[in-house]
Amino acid sequence: MAVSVPLLAPRSSDEHDPQPKRPVDRRVEELVTTVGVGAASRLGIELAAYLSGQMGTAATLLALNEAHGDVYFDVPSEAAVDPAAAEATFRSRAAVIDVQTHPVRTSRATTRGAEALFGFLMLRRPSEAAHVLGKLLLAVGPALILWGTDSVWYGPPPALIDAFRSFVIPEPMQERYGYPALTPEMKAAILGGNAAGLYGVDTAPSPIDPAQLAEARAELARRLP
């Protein structure tokens, strides 16, 4: 029996109703469950811990590729079953600046493109998301695209950032529609570099005492509901 996959969990707000699961979503859950049960058993961890970690993210992205019939996420298969491979796949020190883009469903925003972009944030329509990003890259270029999720209080989940860092525009779509490749440099700019230049933010890494970081994380965990 397939389990609920965190990256595909229905989400809603006072403006957006949760989207119902489609057959393709259930297919993704089946694929992730099959891989996750085996990997969790071999590693001696709970399935829930597997699904909420980087290996679960990798398994979900690979399942999305298979279910949607193309490579939308550049993730090696070993990242779904090996902790070191998963960590290496998603490791990055590049800055992420969330400019809090606010999607509002008005008569002017209910276009297929707006829905597709919202769908991408839920990792449900990678093909349409590739079209949206491809068209944006052609129309305005990578330097004018900013990362924003409207996740005001806690920022977007790390798995969503990992998913975008892995996201690619499939080569057949590039050839057919003339979209440029979504390179790591473009994604780094979209995730934080562009906003850093716009707002004058210094993104150079600063030394952090590991003990202070651990204390800050523990304090945040205590404050969260």
* Biggest sheet features: none
In whole angstroms, the N-to-C terminal distance is 30 Å
What assembly state would you assign to the polypeptide chains in this entry? single chain
**What is the number of beta strands?**
0
The chain-level structural class is mainly alpha
What can you see in these coordinates?
The chain has 225 residues and is mainly α. It has 2 domains: 1-91, no CATH class; 93-220, no CATH class. Helices cover 53% and strands 0% of the residues. It has 10 helices and no strands. Helix 1 (23-43) runs antiparallel to helix 3. The longest helix has 21 residues, at 23-43. Residues 104-116 have low confidence and may be disordered.
Helix-strand blueprint:
Layout: H1 23-43, H2 47-52, H3 54-68, H4 83-90, H5 112-121, H6 126-139, H7 158-166, H8 171-177, H9 184-199, H10 210-223
Keywords:
mainly alpha, 10 helices, globular, 225 residues
Short synopsis of the structure:
The protein is mainly alpha-helical and about 220 residues long. The chain has helices at about 25-45, 45-50, 55-70, 85-90, 110-120, 125-140, 160-165, 170-175, 185-200, 210-225.
